[in-house]
Amino acid sequence: MTPITEVEGRRLALSNLGKVLYPATGFTKGELLHYYATAADALLTHLRDRPVSFLRYPDGPEGQRFFTKNVPPGTPDWVRAEDVPRSASSVSRQVVVQDLPSLMWAANLVTEFHTPQWRADAPAMADRLVLDLDPGAPADVVDCCAVALWLRERLRADGLDAYVKTSGSKGLHLLVPLEPTPSEQVSAYAKALAVEGEAAHPELVLHRMTRSLRPGKVFVDHSQNAAAKTTATPYTLRARPEPTVSAPVTWEEVEACTDARELTFLADDMAPRLERYGDLLGPLADPDRAGRVP
Q1: CB within 10 Å: which end of the chain, N or C, has fewer?
Q2: Do the Cβ atoms of 164 and 175 come closer than 8 Å?
Q3: What whole-number distance in Å separates Cα of residue 254 and Cα of residue 63?
């Protein structure tokens, strides 16, 4: 029998709580739901008002995975949904996770949360810039840290403040709060930064996705600033062998990193980190921190 629970006045059916989703660690669906409830205050800051894309993995990372932007069948009528332009002639209807009941309903689907760099009420007007630092083996997150530090100073020269989180996979994400700016303009600026980084450090940085060029280098993926693209939301769990989190980190941690394990965070790590640091990405939601793209 599926247990029914009440979350802030909303009734939710939470299923298969004992199901092991991450066999490597024995991490269950019940633990996944507990994690999302624990991280909710911080996570909702970065989900709120943004259309959500779901990467679902209901049988765990080793099972079937599928990506969807459309409102899932059976979505409760109290979960907010918005029409979002997909092209000049079409729209899609997507979930917008605004509150704890909606978050727990979505978490019950077993999903990674992915969001664009703009809000539902201002499509294609980016209020943040993202640079995804993706290492090609044998490069790893330590090399990403070196690139992140260069980019931080380069962005600072343009009057922009950068914040950083792990991707929850192999690399890092740099995030910059912006005054609302057309996504095309942000994309062009992000690409220019990546090109400049490759010119300054050709032995380490790559601005193109070409697979044959990537071994031993850090690909600075600027493409996620396009209006149609999304990035793993801060604090989302990832569909990886272990329940890794896309976790905000301090610049001091980036500067000190000498081993990839130092910037690998699991679900159980996040409650003490939130207690110690609060939401390190909170400034992304502060309009006073927003900068202008040159």
Answers
A1: N
A2: yes
A3: 33
pLDDT of residue 209: 84
Asked, as a colleague might, if the bond just before 76 is cis with ω within 30 of 0, I would say: no
* 70: DSSP letter: S
Q: What is the pTM assigned to this prediction?
A: 0.95
65 phi and psi, to 5 degrees?
-125, 140
β-sheet bridge partners, residue 131: 174
CB 168 within 8 A of CB 240: yes
Q: How far apart are CA 290 and CA 214, in angstroms?
A: 33
Place of tokens 């010119």: 199
Q: How far is CA 106 from CA 68, 160, 261, in A?
A: 13, 33, 29
Secondary structure of residue 287 in the 3-state scheme: helix
More confident residue, 209 or 252: 252
SS3 151: helix
**How far from 271 is each of 107, 238, 254, 276, CA to CA, in Å?**
17, 17, 20, 9
Q: CA-to-CA distance for 102 and 224, rounded, in angstroms?
A: 25
d(CA 133, CA 205): 9
Contact 278, 181 (CB under 8 A): no
| H or E element that contains 92 | strand 91-96
Map tokens 């760099």 to a residue. 117
Return the number of other C-beta atoms located less than 10 Å from residue 137's C-beta.
Answer: 9
Instruction: Quick: pLDDT tens for 180-199.
Output: 999 999 999 999 999 999 99
What is the per-residue pLDDT across 72-109, written as a single tens digit (0 to 9) for each? 999 999 999 999 887 667 888 999 999 999 999 999 99
